[in-house]
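User: I'll paste a sequence; please echo it back and then give the predicted structure.

Assistant: Echoing your sequence first, then the prediction.
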Amino acid sequence: MNLDDKYKRVLFDTIAEIYDLVRPQYPRSLIDDLEEASDLQRRSRILEIGSGTGQLTKGLAARGFNIDCVEIGPNLAGVATTRLSEFPNIRIKIGNFEKMKYKANYYDLAVFATSYKWIDPNERIPRVTRLLRENGYIAIIETHHVNGGTENFFIDSQTCYKRYDSNTPDTFQLPDPTGVVARKYEEEMKKYFNTVISRFYEQEVQYSTAEYQKLLRTYSDVLAMDEESRKALLDCIAEIIESKYAGYVKKRYLFELFVAKRKTSP
């Protein structure tokens, strides 16, 4: 993880309530598969790293699991605390996962929900391995932006990105769902883990102009822009949605669930 990533990962805390409002929910079938693949039982102990506003946490908490959450952003953790107040089996700590102390050989599952990329790659697998019991599991959920939904909008909107974001490539195209690479974590963790499943789930979400502007504000690259450029970008995209798409667009997501089991003897 480079210095830019360390900076960007704390930006989400500045828009915690917006993040909770517009980010897509994880499909129920994904949570079902996570429970089955990780051999979770009622009262199983879970460590969720980068729990954000508790979008995955609530789905797991309702099933009776004991969950320790760690979140670097105090505002994100505050939203999660409110959302999860009905669950006595949830504990949320605010801090940097790479520096916090937890019981070794204790957890049945460590899960990263759209947070894995923000954890130091030199720390994440060795540290998680120490915290899991023998035959415990690691689960990684990624959210991919893929071709689909209102397809022409995502082509049209590139004119805005090229105008206001200097990092925009000359050619850009969302990948087809069938082109997303699966099992990309195996090489990194093969010393300590054996893969159990790698599975994908598609979902389309419709957004109004205002909702889509809010969604873009939760993306790290947009958050990292200066305020003037960010406003100009969002206004430009809003104009396209209003003038060409009657105020609504659909976006397709591809959620990826990867689960692996800790080896008894690495």
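The mean pLDDT is 92. The CA atoms of residues 186 and 195 lie 7 Å apart.
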